[in-house]
């Protein structure tokens, strides 16, 4: 297919949508396309810039009359400039708010009819799109896009329900680059030592941005139920608004010696390999990229039956699904999974899920086919 010049708009900081945008960009670059990332900072996973992977920073102007610096407008302005300067063939926007709207505006500013693909990632619809103050804006962003994709059928359905756009939405699942993950059954003695975890003690892990939707309190409650039956350790990896409150909660439950808040870590691969089971108990989740990362390291996952999660976690196969606020049941499954025969079976199924249903090259093919479709007449 023709090699394309693609403008990619995404959030540069830690977060699944930025990770997917960057990993997809890298894969597209390796297929010969030139990817132009347009963002406020260089996306954190975009560690190397090349001829095929370029970065265009958005400069945010402040001025005394502004109550808030207008990032969305500056982004649209940059998009307009990059469309012209780099002769872009298409824009791929990740996370509708405000990126889809800025893309539509930037395209108008450039007097261009360049196609826009918008990928919905989750809270752009389920939280922001659900607000009366933003719903029309999200709908506008979707309707002004040439094609809209969602990262799960669950998110697609929720978008139709909440936003009712006059547009069809296609599901393209998330992926991870399976080749960068590994399985190490020796369970990383260095990590266990760092956190004072005895060699044979089971380790549960949760990784997130510690926002309310991640329901860390539910994870802690479930872990407290596990502790009533078995000595174990909980690694809470990441940082965010809920962290302080959760540290206090763990103290209140008097389980501090069994719980480690690691903060943000780069070595999540090693942390996963030092662990046995992931707990992911969000009350909203369009996909749950971190679940795929756990699978790629052979970890089964106990997760909530919410949003797109049941499309990733197959109950009784690669993990277990639970409803909100049933910590006893989470504990029951989490302990059951440690039983060696069951563990091996679930672990193998988890690996297979990451490598087949969410196979990276297969998903990149689907995006590339969309790129080809929307640029056919360009
Ligand atoms: O969680 C968010 O609010 C933002 C977003 C992000 O940038 O991490 O997360 C969403 O996109 C991820 C990548 O597609 C999905 O794996 C997450 O499930 C989704 N988060 C939610 O729906 C809560």
What does this structure look like?
With 378 residues, the protein is of the alpha/beta class. The chain has two domains: 5-175 and 359-375, Rossmann fold (3-Layer(aba) Sandwich); 180-355, Glycogen Phosphorylase B (Rossmann fold). It is 43% helix and 16% strand. The protein has 15 helices and 13 strands. The strands form two sheets. A seven-stranded parallel β-sheet has the order 3-2-1-4-5-6-7, sandwiched between helices. Strands 10-9-8-11-12-13 form a six-stranded parallel β-sheet, sandwiched between helices. Helix 6 links the parallel strand 6 and strand 7. Helix 3 crosses helix 5 (132-143). It is globular. Residues 11, 15-18, 20, 121-123, 126, 151, 174, 213, 284-289 line the site of ligand GMT. Ligand GMT binds at residues 11, 15-18, 20, 121-123, 126, 151, 174, 213, 284-289.
């Amino acid at each position: 297919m023709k090699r394309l010049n693609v403008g990619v708009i995404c959030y540069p900081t830690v977060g699944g949508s930025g990770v997917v945008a960057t990993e997809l960009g890298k894969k597209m670059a390796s297929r010969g396309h030139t990817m132009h990332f347009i963002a406020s900072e260089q996306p954190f996973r975009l560690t190397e810039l090349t001829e095929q992977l370029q970065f265009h920073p958005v400069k945010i102007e402040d001025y005394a009359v502004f109550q808030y610096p207008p990032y969305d407008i500056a982004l649209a302005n940059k998009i307009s400039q990059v469309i012209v300067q780099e002769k872009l063939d298409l824009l791929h926007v990740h996370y509708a708010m405000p990126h889809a709207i800025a893309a539509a505006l930037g395209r108008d500013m450039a007097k261009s009819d360049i196609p826009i693909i918008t990928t919905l990632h989750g809270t752009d619809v389920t939280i922001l799109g659900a607000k009366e103050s933003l719903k029309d804006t999200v709908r506008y962003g979707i309707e002004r896009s040439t094609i809209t994709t969602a990262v799960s059928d669950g998110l697609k359905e929720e978008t139709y329900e909440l936003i009712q756009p006059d547009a069809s939405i296609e599901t393209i699942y998330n992926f991870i680059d399976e080749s960068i993950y590994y399985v190490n059954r020796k369970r990383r003695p260095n990590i266990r030592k760092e956190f004072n975890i005895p060699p044979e003690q089971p380790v549960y892990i949760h990784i997130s941005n510690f926002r309310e939707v991640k329901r860390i309190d539910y994870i802690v409650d479930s872990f407290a139920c596990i502790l009533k039956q078995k000595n174990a350790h909980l690694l809470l990896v990441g940082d965010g608004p809920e962290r302080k409150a959760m540290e206090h909660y763990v103290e209140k439950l008097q389980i501090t010696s069994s719980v480690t808040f690691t903060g943000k870590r780069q070595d999540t691969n090693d942390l996963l390999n030092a662990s046995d089971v992931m707990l992911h108990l969000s009350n909203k989740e369009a996909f749950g990229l971190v679940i795929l990362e756990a699978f790629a390291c052979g970890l089964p996952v106990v997760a909530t039956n919410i949003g797109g999660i049941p499309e990733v976690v197959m109950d009784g196969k690669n993990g277990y699904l639970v409803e909100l606020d049933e910590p006893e049941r989470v504990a029951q499954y989490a302990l059951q999974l440690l039983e060696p025969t069951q563990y091996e079976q679930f672990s193998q199924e988890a690996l297979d899920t990451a490598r087949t249903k969410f196979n990276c090259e297969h998903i990149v093919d689907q995006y590339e086919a969309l790129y080809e479709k929307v640029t056919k007449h360009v």
